[in-house]
Amino acid sequence: MGKNADHTIGAYTRVIKVESQVLIPGFIDAHAHMFAFCRVDETVKYAIKGGTTTVITEVIDTFFHVGYPGLREFMKAARIQPIKIFMLLPGSPFIGESPKKQRLTGEEADSLLKQSEVLGVGEVYWPYVLRKDENALMLISKALTQNKRVEGHGAGAKDKNLAAYASAGVSSCHEAINAEEALERLNLGFTTMIRGEA
User: Fold this and answer.
1) Nearest to 58 by CA among 134, 137, 146, 172
2) Using N-to-C axis directions, what is the helix angle for 134-145 and 106-113, rounded to 10°?
3) Taking the CB of the first residue and of the last residue of the chain, which one, N or C, has fewer CB atoms within 10 A?
4) Which helix (H) or strand (E) covers residue 173, if one does?
5) 3-state SS string over 19-88?
6) Cβ 105 vs Cβ 93: under 8 Å
7) Which residue intervals of 80-133 are DSSP H helices?
């Protein structure tokens, strides 16, 4: 782009000429629960208005209400949206009171992790890892075997607990609430998201 961009134009380049406009890159929402309470297409309408072109969303809320068959339907709906939608499989049982304590089976996890839009397993709560919850450890193992990510939820974890959590293969935490917690996570090799108030 710009006045001297002719050298970047190839035989298959689509040229769009605009004036008096501002061009910005699309935003990536790196941690969302965007479909917890409404349909995929309705949510996307609002994401686009704000300039979001890619979303990485947890599906924990969706999965625990509709199970594996519903999650497959959700994935079909996500594929036909005008933005890119990637997802992370639910890594721990639903926290709180839920009429359905659904968990992915190993076969279901294998099938889902093979999909290109599934980047790995998300929201693996640290107490489940430290208690050696079989389902959480199975999901971590399957994700790592397929070279996918294991995203964490380490709210309240620190010191030895946080180090043990990292050693299980969890690669990130979005729960640091101050500089000290962020630095501790970074020092242990976690990708660390900064939480802020809207």
Assistant:
1) 172
2) 30
3) C
4) strand 172-173
5) CCCCCCCCEEEEEECCCCCCCHHHHHHHHHHCCEEEEEEECHHHHHHHHHHHHHHHHHHHHCCCCEEEEE
6) no
7) 106-113, 126-130
Q: How many CA atoms lie within 13 A of 28 on its CB side?
A: 5
Q: What is the DSSP letter of 12?
A: T
Q: Quick one: pLDDT at residue 52?
A: 93
Distances in Å between the alpha carbon of 164 and those of 43, 73, 82, 134, 172? 37, 36, 40, 16, 13
**CATH fourth-level superfamily of 26-192:** Metal-dependent hydrolases (3.20.20.140)
Q: For residue range 94-146, what is the model confidence (pLDDT) as tens digits? A: 555 554 567 899 999 999 999 999 999 998 999 999 999 999 999 999 999 99
- The whole-angstrom distance between residue 151's C-alpha and the CA centroid of its chain comes to 7
- Could you tell me if 116 and 147 are in contact, meaning their C-beta atoms sit under 8 angstroms apart? no
List the domain boundaries for the chain: 26-192
Closest to 165 in 3D by CA, of 147, 196, 181, 188? 188
- List the Cα angle 102/153/139 in 5-degree steps: 45
How many percent of the chain have pLDDT more than 70? 91
